Amino acid sequence: MFFRKGFLMKNQTAWHLIHTKPRQEKTACEQLERQGFTTYLPLIRQQGPTNQQIIPLFPRYLFIRLTAGLDDWTPIRSTRGVSSLVRVGMNPAIISEHLIKAIQQRADGDGFHKPATKKLTKGDRIRLISGPFAEYEAIFSEQRAENRAIILLNLIGKQNRIEVPTESFIICN
């Protein structure tokens, strides 16, 4: 399980998820670190049309490590770039330490993640990692443009053709 609802005991530390304003992940990360919080923003080095770009692995999200009873969580929501703390019901979602370590281990020596190098072929299984269908699995159908793809997503018992950005999914093993 990637995140769970949970209650932290006093002085217990856990990772949580911050939802940021559009394209303000780096700003939110910098501002939270200035306030003394520990954050983690996984980044991808991606070749753009004219130059290399550094973009978030999970657009509009970053991780924050908080200690119950010690950290003052109230300034988080008014921090520049932050939209909200992701919650399950009324409680902040707790992100698995195992998941954070797995993400960190997949980074290269410079701390960057690399986009999938495998050439996608029709029928490959993918998992959406951002957008309204995040965490859904789908089937790759065709490359539309350099950064767009057509996928087949099963919704309500019907297979739908949807065009999505290529950075919004990862290849399933």
Automatic annotation (TrEMBL):
Pfam families (alphabetical): NusG
Record flagged with keyword Transcription regulation: yes
Domain NusG-like N-terminal: 12-107
UniProt entry tagged with the keyword Magnesium: no
UniProt cross-references to SMART domains, sorted A to Z: NGN
GO cellular component: cytosol
Keywords: Transcription, Transcription antitermination, Transcription regulation
Gene Ontology BP annotations: DNA-templated transcription elongation; transcription antitermination
UniProt cross-references to NCBIfam families, sorted A to Z: RfaH
Name of this protein: Transcription/translation regulatory transformer protein RfaH
Organism field: Sedimenticola selenatireducens
